[in-house]
């Protein structure tokens, strides 16, 4: 009888421990019910962040689960664009943020344990002291000469963090072209090729300046882009003692015009040596100069190639000296028919190469990029 009683006791004991759902197994079930959700949602920037950069995308991610929905809204309640990754483990905004704005995010996810979790938060973006505008040249759809530089200017203030700005600039060309950015001053950075552009090159420039810190509390106002083309290869060459102006196309002599250049005996009135570019074309130009005693002097077919005062233009009043003597005050004088023919052939950005003078062109003109040797030019990059 004793053995039978022991067997019964073992049987009752075994039944009690084997059934978690029975009255005796409630302890395990209670532990499962109180376990926290395994999924965890994180956001960047974190909730309550301030002075957030406007160029950094907002990212929401989940561990041990998948995102069900993510919304990011601005202060007006409008949704900011973004997208879930294919694995639904993250969401990234695709729209740039505004300066000095408050944003709210709300994300829900389902964990691998089947439980729902949620994350809400707000953050604010930085407020610049100022947002100066910038300009870019050449403009869209322009066709320019083979010496044309790309110029980005900051007319409303100086850039102190030049490296940050230069990193935001990109030049793409239809054929390989070696070139470099160079800071001519704190308000202008230019890009030019090592040698003249190949004729027919297509050029696209992207300046992702919005949100870039210029220094001193200033940030970029907006991005800039331009797409332009390089025209035919045309180069003007003036060797001043020869009293003529030669025009070359693709390296071959295209036209030659007799000229009267800047006076040889006065370096201040020379047509200065150097490589400049065609900057401006006017059917009629005003060449009055009270300093030298002449006013109301209008000349036809004026092609400016420096802001130092040099033009190629018609001057039939000086016909007796054209092709024979240099008598101008720095300009290249041509006969009217020749000046018109050249005017019609010229593109903004064509190079004008002057040699043979006693004086060199000073680097005070608006466009003096080609007066700087290539090694020096590269050293003027903030990233060199």
TrEMBL record:
Residues 19-42 are annotated as: Disordered. SUPFAM superfamilies: L,D-transpeptidase catalytic domain-like. It holds the Pfam family YkuD. Residues 234-355 form the L,D-TPase catalytic domain. One of its GO terms (biological process) is cell wall organization. PROSITE patterns: LD_TPASE. It comes from the Bacteria. GO terms for cellular component: extracellular region. Pathway: Cell wall biogenesis; peptidoglycan biosynthesis. Keywords: Acyltransferase, Cell shape, Cell wall biogenesis/degradation, Peptidoglycan synthesis, Transferase. PANTHER family: L,D-TRANSPEPTIDASE, L,D-TRANSPEPTIDASE YCIB-RELATED. This is L,D-transpeptidase. It comes from Actinokineospora bangkokensis.
């Amino acid at each position: 009888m004793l053995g039978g009683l022991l067997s019964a006791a073992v049987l009752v004991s075994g039944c009690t421990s084997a059934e978690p759902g029975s009255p005796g197994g409630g302890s395990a079930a209670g532990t499962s019910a109180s376990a926290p959700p395994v999924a965890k949602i994180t956001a960047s920037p974190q909730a309550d962040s301030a002075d957030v950069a406007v160029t950094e995308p907002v990212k929401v991610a989940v561990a041990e689960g998948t995102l069900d929905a993510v919304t990011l809204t601005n202060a007006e309640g409008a949704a900011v664009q973004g997208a879930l990754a294919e694995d639904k483990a993250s969401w990234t905004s695709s729209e740039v943020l505004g300066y000095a704005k408050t944003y709210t995010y709300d994300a829900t996810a389902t964990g691998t344990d089947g439980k729902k979790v949620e994350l809400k938060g707000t953050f604010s973006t930085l407020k610049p002291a100022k947002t100066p505008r910038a300009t870019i040249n050449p403009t869209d759809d322009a066709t320019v000469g083979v010496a044309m530089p790309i110029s980005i200017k900051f007319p409303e203030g100086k850039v102190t963090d030049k490296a940050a700005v230069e990193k935001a600039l990109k030049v793409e060309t239809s054929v390989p072209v070696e070139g470099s950015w160079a800071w001519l001053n704190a308000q202008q950075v230019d890009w030019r090729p090592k040698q003249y552009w190949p004729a027919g090159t297509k050029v696209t420039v992207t300046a992702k300046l919005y949100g870039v810190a210029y220094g001193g509390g200033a940030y970029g106002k907006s991005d800039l882009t331009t797409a332009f083309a390089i025209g035919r290869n045309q180069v003007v060459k003036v060797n001043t003692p020869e009293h003529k102006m030669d025009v070359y196309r693709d390296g071959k002599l295209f036209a030659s015009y007799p000229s009267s250049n800047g006076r040889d005996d006065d370096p201040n009135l020379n047509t200065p040596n150097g490589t400049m570019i065609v900057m401006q074309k006017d059917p009629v130009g005003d060449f009055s100069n009270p300093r030298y005693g002449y006013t109301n002097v209008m000349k036809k077919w004026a092609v400016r190639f420096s802001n130092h005062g040099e033009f190629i233009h018609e001057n039939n009043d000086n016909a007796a000296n054209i092709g024979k003597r240099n008598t101008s005050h720095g300009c290249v004088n041509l006969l009217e028919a020749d000046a018109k023919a050249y005017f019609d052939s010229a593109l903004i950005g064509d190079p004008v190469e002057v040699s043979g003078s006693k004086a060199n062109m000073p680097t005070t003109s608006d466009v003096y990029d080609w007066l700087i040797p290539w090694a020096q030019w590269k050293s003027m990059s903030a990233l060199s």
